[in-house]
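The protein record quoted in full:

***
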Amino acid sequence: MKVFALPPLLLVAAFAAAPARAQDTTAAALEVVKHNWSKERLGWERDPFSGVIENFDDARVRMRNESRVARSRGTPEGDRIDREARADQSIIAAQHRSKPARYAFLYKASFSNTGRRPTKTIDWDYVFTDAATGEEVGRHQFTSDEKIGPGKQGGVAVYIAAPPARTISVHSLNSKERDSITGRVEVVRVVYSDGTVWERR
């Protein structure tokens, strides 16, 4: 088998032809205007004060028990069957109550482009620290395709299941949870429309 070697000049030309994004070494011309996060309840379309919504199996058990109680009324076994029917209904109601609520978390940030080039893609981190100690307790890394023209503002939002930190419950709403942590947004990387890239150092 023959092996062919390219002349050095051709190798240099091949590397020179490879496209490369220019690295922007100046400060990021993208400022964080505001940021926020919230916990959102999922699948809560019905009235929270309404009664339990039965599924097919629950309704079948209830109707069967009602029929048994009606047939046995006035007989020696009537009281026992009525007690068993009530126990079945209590178990079904407890199962409905014990289902954990589902939540997701919405992370939002607004940016101001103070530079001369439109943005194309923004890598940004939402960082959370313990309010008492200042220790970092959570970090979420996001990439958003967002075109923000020079002198303009734009917002991004990401909806995920992960909470800001382990101290935040994913099963319940707690008004005091927010007080235990503080959050900030860091711009990590910006790709501009002309192909240049700025990265945090």
